[in-house]
């Protein structure tokens, strides 16, 4: 089981001395004392509008945004990631959840064929720090960069400044980095995914969320072998993979196990695969995911957790 102590947390030197203890505390909270991240992604209400929350194959409970917070409360997650306003509306009723505020977002209405993607920062850090001062359990920030977009320089500059300011105030930062734009022909090209991981490191992120690479043509590597190169490129920035569209639990858990144990990932960042299910099933899946991510369970044992044959709680980490 991967466990770390407070003195094993590598604190970046851009964390001010007066914020060092807070950074360590936030890192330990976010990773549940393991150094690995189980990120519950709840930012899709802007990114994908309502199609991820209502429709065929989606449990009706997901139509109510409170479903996300009930999962975060009853399940086992490291952080719940969402926009500032979403968190502001519900955090008072769910103070025990560790929150990561997504600082930029855009809808998917404008296609890449129409215009290269740009996701602007929606609020400044002061608005987030004010929420933290008011008692909201904010441990970190998130920001998306579309590498290869004609607007990448603007997004990288925003992210770089944000990371420096966040670290100075003891907060973690997770970057979402997706190669996307008219200059990008294959968004999941292994070299591009590894490149994105290296960009996150150079910007100073604590973790980076990428799409799993997809080797093609003469590249005989498995996706997990290709992911290993991206994990190496990320250096001391922990790499986690996006969960993607909903699949059956065993397929997802098997993929996650291999991402960590073959691909060198430092956890997962999962949204639709969790919240599109009923509350009971979603909670059990967070426990199964966390059992693999935070406690090194194998897939068979994690499936027992998902099927309710074995429990998994924070106290077991």
Summarize the structure.
With 317 residues, the protein is an alpha/beta fold. Helix content is 39%, strand content 14%.
How much is the average pLDDT? 97
Number of domains: 1
Beta-strand fraction estimate: 5-15%
Radius of gyration: 18 Å
- How much helicity do the residues have? 25-40%
What is the H/E string? Answer: HEHHEHEHEHEHEHEHEHHH
Determine the CATH superfamily. Answer: Aldolase class I
Q: What is the count of β-strands?
A: 8
| Overall morphology | globular
Strand order, largest beta sheet: 1-2-3-4-5-6-7-8
Structural class: alpha/beta
Going by CATH, the architecture would be Alpha-Beta Barrel
User: Under CATH, the topology is which?
Assistant: TIM Barrel
Number of helices: 12
Low-confidence stretches are none
Biggest sheet details? 8 strands, parallel, barrel
CATH class group: Alpha Beta
Calculate the terminal CA-CA distance, rounded to whole Å: 8 Å
Describe the structure.
The protein has one domain (6-316): Aldolase class I (TIM Barrel), CATH 3.20.20. It has an 8-stranded parallel β-barrel, surrounded by 8 helices. With 317 residues, the chain is α/β, with parallel strands linked by helices. It has 12 helices and 8 strands. Helix 5 links the parallel strand 3 and strand 4.
Topology:
Blueprint: H1 20-30, E1 37-41, H2 44-47, H3 66-74, E2 79-83, H4 84-90, E3 99-102, H5 125-133, E4 138-147, H6 152-168, E5 172-179, H7 190-203, E6 207-210, H8 223-234, E7 238-242, H9 249-261, E8 267-270, H10 272-275, H11 279-295, H12 299-306
Parallel strand pairs: 1-2, 1-8, 2-3, 3-4, 4-5, 5-6, 6-7, 7-8
Helix pairs in contact: 3-11, 7-8, 9-11, 9-12, 11-12
């Amino acid at each position: 089981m991967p466990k770390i102590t407070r003195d094993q947390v590598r604190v970046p030197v851009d964390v001010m001395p007066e914020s060092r203890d807070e950074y360590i505390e936030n890192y330990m909270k976010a990773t549940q004392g393991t150094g690995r991240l189980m990120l519950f992604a709840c930012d899709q209400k802007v990114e994908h509008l309502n199609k991820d929350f209502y429709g065929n194959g989606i449990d009706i409970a997901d139509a109510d945004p409170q479903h996300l917070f009930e999962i975060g409360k009853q399940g086992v997650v490291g952080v719940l990631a969402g926009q500032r306003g979403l968190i502001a509306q519900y955090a008072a009723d769910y103070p025990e959840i560790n929150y990561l505020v997504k600082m930029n977002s855009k809808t998917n209405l404008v296609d890449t064929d129409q215009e290269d993607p740009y996701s602007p920062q929606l609020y400044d850090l002061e608005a987030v720090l004010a929420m933290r001062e008011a008692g909201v359990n904010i441990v970190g920030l998130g920001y998306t960069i579309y590498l290869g977009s004609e607007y990448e320089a603007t997004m990288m500059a925003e992210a770089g400044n944000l990371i420096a300011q966040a670290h100075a105030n003891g907060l973690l930062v997770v970057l979402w980095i997706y190669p996307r734009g008219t200059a990008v022909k294959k968004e999941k090209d292994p070299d591009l995914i590894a490149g994105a991981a290296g960009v996150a490191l150079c910007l100073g992120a604590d973790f980076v969320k990428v799409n799993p690479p997809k080797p093609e043509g003469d590249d005989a590597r498995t996706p997990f072998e290709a992911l290993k190169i991206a994990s190496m490129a990320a250096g001391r920035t922990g790499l986690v993979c996006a969960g993607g569209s909903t699949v059956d639990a065993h397929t997802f858990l098997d993929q996650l196990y291999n991402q960590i144990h073959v691909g060198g990932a430092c956890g997962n960042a999962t949204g639709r695969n969790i919240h599109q299910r009923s509350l009971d099933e979603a909670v059990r899946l967070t426990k199964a995911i966390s059992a693999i991510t935070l406690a090194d369970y194998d897939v068979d044992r994690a499936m027992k957790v998902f099927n309710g044959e074995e429990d998994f709680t924070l106290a077991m980490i």
